[in-house]
Amino acid sequence: MFKKIIKGCRKRHRKSQKELYEMYYAYGMSITLRYADTRNEAAAILNDAFMKVYDNIKEYNLNRPFKPWFRRILINTAINHYHKTKKEKERPVVDLQENSISEDESIISGITYREMIEMVQLLSPVYRTIFNLYVIEGFTHKEIARKLHIAEGTSKSNFFKAKQNLRSILEKNLTLPNYNARK
C-alpha cells in the first residue's frame, strides 16, 4: 500500500499525494509545532515541507524508512522558515531566570506534552529553535551553529538562556490557580 502511494506521488497523482499527506499530517505537525509560534505557522511550514517531499520524492529510497527522510525535510524547512522570518519576529529577549525552580523531574512529570509544547512556544524564536534542535533533534552545538549561521558559543549561550527561561515559564505555570486546581 505505502509503496503504491509513493509510486503514485512520483507520477504526481493528486490522490496519492493526498493519501501521503493524510497519512503523515499528524506526525509532521508534531514536529513543526515545536518550531512555530502558532498552529497556523506550523501548518504553513508543514505544507512547505510536503511540497518539498512531492518535488523530491524520486530521491526517496523505497527500501528505507520514510519517517527519517520526511523528518529531515521537516526540520530543514522549519530552519529555512526561521531564516526567512527571523527579522520580523525578533522580540526583545527577556531574562526570566529569577526565582527558578529546582531540577526535580517530578515537577514536570505532571505536565502534558501539549502543555510543554505551549511553554516552549513562549520562548523567543531563536531560543525555541536552538532548544528544539539540541534537545529534541539531537544536533550538536557545532551542527546548530552551522545550520543557523551563528557561532557555536552563541548556540550554547542561547541554549543555556532557553533552559533558564523555560524554568521560569514552568514555575509560573505551576503556580497558576488553574494548574493547582487540576491536581
Going by helix content, strand content and strand pairing, the class is mainly alpha
Number of strands: 0
Strand content: under 5%
The overall average pLDDT, rounded, is 84
Low-confidence stretches: 91-107, 179-183
Rg from alpha-carbon coordinates: 19 Å
Query: What is the rounded distance between the termini?
Result: 45 Å
Largest sheet: none
Query: Treating each run of at least 4 consecutive H or I residues as one helix, how many helices?
Result: 10
Run of helices and strands: HHHHHHHHHH
Helix percent band:
over 70%
Task: Choose one word for the global shape.
Answer: globular
Overview of this protein structure:
The protein is mainly α and 183 residues long. 73% of the residues lie in helices and 0% in strands. The protein is built from ten helices and no strands. The chain has helices at residues 2-10, 14-32, 39-56, 66-89, 105-108, 113-121, 125-136, 141-148, 152-175, 177-182. α2 (14-32) packs across α3. The radius of gyration is 19 Å and the shape is globular. The chain starts with a helix and ends with a helix. Residues 91-107 and 179-183 have low confidence and may be disordered.
